[in-house]
């Protein structure tokens, strides 16, 4: 920005007309630039997790009043009519029965010890018995062969390699506590010591995680194979601190599968190295990060939860009616899709045409309120900078088919919340531990989390699945067609 010297009144009176005109034009240009800069700073301050892509953790202690983007369904809080309840049930054959005799009448103190009970009133308590480490000694026979004269011995079971060691079940529990519940290594060892009376060394937890990661390699290969054949895959990425530097966690998932990849970069190179998007031909659901669109052999759908937050920001900061209208339209379509999805695979043609017309009409009103920026002065290079409303309008117009894909194919969700849920758990790990100290440790964690998340999505027992991975029989997901 060119600096304009400060003029006194007498100096201005001495300037000729053309010089004054040039000065006013220059001042107008600087005023416009300063206004734009002030607006940009106001926009930055106004953004929070409810109207942008910023995470809730960035909102600080003084969080703004939240406004849910969901529509009220008129239901009261709590369990809804017809929902399946869950409660403990009486067992006909309990493991133990404790008899509590009645010796005296609590009303008149009459001795009742010689009277048989007329009936029994039962109550059952579900509890855990005392647990202790069980030590198994493996003995293999050693014999001298009369044929060759050599001293030979039988083979120890697979995995029994040390004179004294911990077994696979304890390793599975250590990995479960550390990688699934994000309990730090020191506290994991302390917890195992409190439970079983034996406190393993810190290295035991790291070795257990490495063994699980190696054991679940067949599962990871199968997850990648099934993702490539899926009709739709959710994609997302987020920053992760590894060895003191920013790296990027990439996720690909469905309702049944999860795969995490780690890379030093966020964009196309990282997505290519992950090995899924380059060969994927189904629907990729994600946000508007441009690197996803470099893979043109697949179809692209976009997260409308992101759109709703951006539209809320336009409403808050720019007070443009079209933003509310577009948000209402997207929610109307979502509601109609939910209403008819059990009887159809897509909205009927007349409803599709109606919503397409409404979408176009709202975009036209938005473009009218946000004309293209003026051509920049000759000294400035590149495209003219646009306002946030204009940028959002351009994306909604250019990627219309991906924004509205959920009303044409009910297998495509309205939002990308599944991918965000998959990412969120790894971010929780970072909040607990701060960062990963080594690249190898971060990769091991990503592999185990891919395995655990897939196991959970299938409703299987996580500890049992970790034990199976340690014993060479990892959980393998069966293909599920959607």
How does the SSE layout of this entry go?
Layout: H1 9-13, H2 17-46, E1 142-144, E2 151-153, H3 168-180, H4 185-196, H5 202-215, H6 217-228, E3 232-242, E4 245-253, E5 258-263, H7 268-274, E6 283-286, E7 299-302, H8 304-318, H9 321-340, H10 349-369, H11 388-398, H12 400-403, H13 405-408, H14 417-433, H15 439-457, H16 462-470
Helix pairs in contact: 3-5, 3-16, 5-15, 5-16, 6-15, 8-9, 9-10, 10-11
Question: What can you tell me about this protein's structure?
Answer:
The radius of gyration is 33 Å and the shape is extended. It contains 16 helices and seven strands. Helix 6 (217-228) crosses helix 15 (439-457) and helix 10 (349-369) packs antiparallel against helix 11. With 482 residues, it is α/β, with parallel strands linked by helices. The protein has a domain at 304-372 and 383-408. The protein has a five-stranded mixed beta sheet with strand order 5-4-3-6-7, with helices on both faces. The protein has a two-stranded antiparallel ribbon with strand order 1-2. A hairpin with a 2-residue loop joins strand 3 and strand 4. Helix content is 44%, strand content 8%.
């Amino acid at each position: 920005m060119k600096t304009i010297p400060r003029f006194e009144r007498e100096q201005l009176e001495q300037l000729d007309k053309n010089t004054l005109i040039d000065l006013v034009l220059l001042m107008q240009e600087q005023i416009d630039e300063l206004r734009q800069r002030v607006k940009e700073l106001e926009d930055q301050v106004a953004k929070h997790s409810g109207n942008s892509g910023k995470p809730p953790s960035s909102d600080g202690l003084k969080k703004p009043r939240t406004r849910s983007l969901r529509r009220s369904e008129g239901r009261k809080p709590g369990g809804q009519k017809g929902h399946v309840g869950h409660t403990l049930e009486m067992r006909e054959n309990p493991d133990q029965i404790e008899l509590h005799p009645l010796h005296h009448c609590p009303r008149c103190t009459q001795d009742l010890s010689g009277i048989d009970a007329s009936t029994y009133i039962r109550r059952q308590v579900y509890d855990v018995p005392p647990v202790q480490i069980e030590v198994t000694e493996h003995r293999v026979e050693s014999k001298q062969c009369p044929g060759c004269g050599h001293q030979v011995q039988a083979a120890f079971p697979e995995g029994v390699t040390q004179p004294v060691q911990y077994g696979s079940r304890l390793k599975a529990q250590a990995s479960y506590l550390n990688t699934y519940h994000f309990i730090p290594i020191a506290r994991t060892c302390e917890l195992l010591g409190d439970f079983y009376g034996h406190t393993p060394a810190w290295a035991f937890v790291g070795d257990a995680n490495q063994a699980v990661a190696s054991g679940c390699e067949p599962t990871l290969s199968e997850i990648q194979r099934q993702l490539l054949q899926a009709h739709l895959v959710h994609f997302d990425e987020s920053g992760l601190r590894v060895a003191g530097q920013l790296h990027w966690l990439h996720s690909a998932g469905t309702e049944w599968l999860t795969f995490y990849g780690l890379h030093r970069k966020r964009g196309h190179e990282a997505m290519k190295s992950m090995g899924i998007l380059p060969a994927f031909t189904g629907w990729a659901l994600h946000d508007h990060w441009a690197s996803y669109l470099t893979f043109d052999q697949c179809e692209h759908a976009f997260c409308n939860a992101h759109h709703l937050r951006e539209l809320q920001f336009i409403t808050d900061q720019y007070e443009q009616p079209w933003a509310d209208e577009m948000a209402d339209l997207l929610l109307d379509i979502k509601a109609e899709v939910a209403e008819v999805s059990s009887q159809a695979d897509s909205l009927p043609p007349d409803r599709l045409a109606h919503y397409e017309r409404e979408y176009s009409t709202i975009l036209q009103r938005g473009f009218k309120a946000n004309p293209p920026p003026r051509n920049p002065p000759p000294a400035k290079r590149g495209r003219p900078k646009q306002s946030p409303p204009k940028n959002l309008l351009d994306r909604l117009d250019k990627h219309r088919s991906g924004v509205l894909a959920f009303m044409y194919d009910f297998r495509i969700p309205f939002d990308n919340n599944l991918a965000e849920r998959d990412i969120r758990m790894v971010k929780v790990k970072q909040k607990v531990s701060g960062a990963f100290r080594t690249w190898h440790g971060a990769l091991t964690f990503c592999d185990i989390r891919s395995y655990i998340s897939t196991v959970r999505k299938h409703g299987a027992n996580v500890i049992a699945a970790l034990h199976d991975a340690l014993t060479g029989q990892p959980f393998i997901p069966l293909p599920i067609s959607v």
